[in-house]
Model the fold of this input.
Amino acid sequence: MLELPPLKAGSPVLIRITEIKLPLDHAEPALKSAVLKKLAVPAAELVNYAVFRRGYDARKPSAIHLIYTVDAEVKNEAAVLTRLSRDRHVSLTPDMSYKHVARAPENLKRRPVVIGTGPCGLFAGYLLAEMGFRPIILDRGKIVRERTKDTFGLWRKRVLNPESNVQFGEGGAGTFSDGKLHSQVRDPEYRGRKVLTEFVKAGAPEEILYVSKPHIGTFRLVSMVENMRATMESLGAEVRFQSKVENLDIEVKGDERRVRGVVLANGETIATDAVVLAVGHSARDTFQMLYDRGVYMEAKPFSIGVRIEHPQSLIDRCRFGKHAGHPLLGAADYKLVHHCSNGRDVYSFCMCPGGQVVAATSEVGHVVTNGMSQYSRAERNANSGIVVGITPADYPDHPLAGIAFQRQWEQKAFTAGGSTYEAPGQKVGDFLAGRSSTAFGTVLPSYKPGVHLTDLSACLPDYAIEAIREALPAFDRQIKGYAMDDAIITGVETRTSAPVRIKRGEDFQSLNTQGLFPAGEGAGYAGGILSAAIDGIRAAEAVALNLVA
Done:
């Protein structure tokens, strides 16, 4: 049963009921019965109902419950709402339809430019196109199908294309990920709902509208971004690939700095009064260019660590007990954190159930790991980043020092892996004992182009190694078997987020460069597909309001 469409003029008034708890294997009529009981109305008074959200409570694996939020249409809804006004689980269903903030003026002389086609840039361009601004959208990489071939070129043939890879190209880094679509961002304007709705229009499964932890998976994301590009172009947007921005045309008058255009690598200058900067967290040369041009930025915290792999069946059993493998539960995930005695925090990051570890570097002579899953989440291993929080105090004195810090450890990982783009790896038992691994155990690594067994202690700072060694046994107390000897770790995970923040004001413009709208993960304002897409929508709204003012 699917979610009801957003309310429109003339639509029936709906009542939202939250926290309906039912056993995992409840009979289908049980949900209707629970709705009738909660509303205290006879069956004849219930016109219709539909699931708005479905999650589960697995804190007790022996007694897992489904948790529903339901929208119901009843006769005489005003009387029902009045009678249940003190019940915090019953309320009027809000209008969740997205409302555009502006329309492009007919005499707009300069089209806005969006740099990047990751989730942030994609939705910034999409919204600007919907509002009639006919944006020009630029990406240094290739269209998603060609980019996929280049990415497989590294994974299968150890050939890296620095401009077309996991980080750069249509769809951004999120294309080669688990496709998670949940976020902790406060979203009173329902921009997140807009994102999910547009994804469904573009080919995502409708369940992302109502399951509590929606995900899509890499292969579905590929066709979705293609469909969204086609829609943008039909609305007047111009999307250009292999169009790297090498400079900004910035006009300086006294203390005022204002963007007047973007300069491409081929020498072309595109005149514009508004640039959405949605370059992602790995556009290191772009960060350097911005710094050289005087755009204000600061170093920010991020995290570094490794990828860990376990049998997915182990995670399923620990989380779901006898219900492991249930189709409504799917492959189990987890979220772990440990506060270490050395003052560091270690936590799981971008956990990918039933997925694989992937090569995610964008620079020659570097090794970077990340995680990815397909929609089915059917691969043998579960993987997750196990990362240690660090701050600018660990890389002081320069806004771009975090980039140099990342590069240092990525280069060490490349060397430790044999300088062939294989990742350095180690069994957990050996890692905890401080000895090199010489043979794989029962858990075989999924990383392509391969894993070179070694001692990972040379691939991360001593304080990070110390913290992870303390955290793994602590995690084992939460998930029995987590510190199993044969679990495999590969390094290094360094691209958890951007190491810089390109600061902006309340109007979303750079603090010292008018017309520049930093947004998304690369600017330091998002972390994940949904939050980046929401930030892209907010950036588009800010551009629209600025251009019509």
Remarks:
- Residues 233 and 239 are 7 Å apart (CA to CA).
- The chain is about 25% helix and 25% strand.
